[in-house]
User: Fold these one by one.
Assistant:
Number 1:
Amino acid sequence: METKKQQEKKIQYIICRVCGYIETADKADQPCPACGFPKTVWMEYNPRRLNPTRKKLLDLHLHPIAVHFPITGSASTLLLPLIALVVPYGLSYRLFDMVTLIAMIMPLLTLIGAVSGYIGGKLRYKTTTAPLLKRKMYLSIVYFLITLGQSYIAFSTGVGPENALIMAGLGLVSSVVAAILGKQGSHLFAGLHGPYVAG
């Protein structure tokens, strides 16, 4: 009878060259279930072996989940103040209140995303001193400082017609930084020219 390790060694994986979806080799005669491209997109893939405890923690996907909240917040602080400037007063008042609340919690959301990314990097790569990881940490600090500025405006004066464009401008800058961080994350996931990035 085969041991579990021997059975695991027999499992072969394939990866879609278009979207980066990973599947077991027995599905090589089927189209990619993620992007729908025909079976010709598959190529052999050998995943890196991870410690079972580290793998369980990474499989929780805490960082990918956590970063969606500040990204949504950044987009909200960009768009909602602009919308509030052109809608009737009753609605604009509520939108400005929403932006104020979002801006006040953005530093916390950004911090949670950054910390979860640091922990994820440490679990996956056992280091945080590699160039790409360091770049992500520096960008995260910039992102955090921008959200602190938004939070200060929201806390000290609230968001209204008089500072809506300033808040939207900071929302634009924070959205750009968030997009760059996301792109850096995709490079960490699949490499600069990997199928996930190129797809």
Note: The radius of gyration is 21 Å.
Number 2:
Amino acid sequence: MSIDAVTRLRLLAAGLHTTMYAEGRLELPYDKVWAVASDLAGELPHLVPLLREFRVPPGDADRKGALAMGPLGCRSAFEVRLAPGWCLMQSRLVVGGMAAVPEGDGTRFAMLGAARPAALRPVQWAYALRARHGRIFIRKVAERAALRS
């Protein structure tokens, strides 16, 4: 039995005990939504407030390294797995993911963010509860996708 990318991300979020998981239906075509989600270097800094730049080498490889830079110059290396409808980004401290599947004339889209060390989970809980970041992230993806022609 095969599961779709959004279900797969939901299961990963449950396994990671993440506090930052959101899922929703966007009234936009899958191609527009995934064009935003998969443009990591161009779009991720617009979607994640604590990210100034996300450097990803060009090319079609589905696995690659990336470098995230925060507003104060902090850097973190990420391993990225990017395939149609699926993105998983992992650093030493953070796991992030996005998934999308066509749903009728719209798109089901999900995101997750998790701290890897258990010691960081209280910070993650406070951040997720205060900012409601998952829903904000999805709303930003929809806004940026709607701007694409």
Note: The chain has five helices and seven strands.
Number 3:
Amino acid sequence: MLYRTELRQAVVAALLQANTLAAQKVYAPRDLPTTPASMPLILVQTPLERKVSLGRHAPLFTTTATIAVNARVQGATVQQVEADLETLCEQIEEAVLTDYTVLKMVQQVAAVDTEIDVTSESRSHLGEAWIRFDMEFPQAYRPTITQSLTDMELTATVTSEGGAQSPPTTIGIPLT
């Protein structure tokens, strides 16, 4: 399983345990369309991952996975929707940024971005917030070995205290 999937599942578990305004309506992954009757709710996705190389020769990376938490609420007034969104955003941040299981999976939370939008296109007002957590962790890949090792070669040079070197000696070591 991909590490970003495990990280997303840990965030979902933290949100379910946090007793937010959304209660147990925390979903991941799920199609985005929802109805006002199902709100408040939280959707969790991992839409972005970036790997930055730590060297030329080994497949080692610092990986940053973006965990996007989408909170949705509905209400009779804009003020109610904004207040509910602010409360839900605070609950989400508190749940994710203090959960030991989530925090031990990453080397740092590199950034948190929040974006809020409220619309009144129908009788009720709808509000939506996106909270994006950039979670950073190390990642290494092991090369696939396609041929078995059959022999090794050892080359040694002896240097005396005076700096004189003996000619290199090579020893073949069969492994079969």
Note: The helical segments are 3-17, 78-98, 100-103.
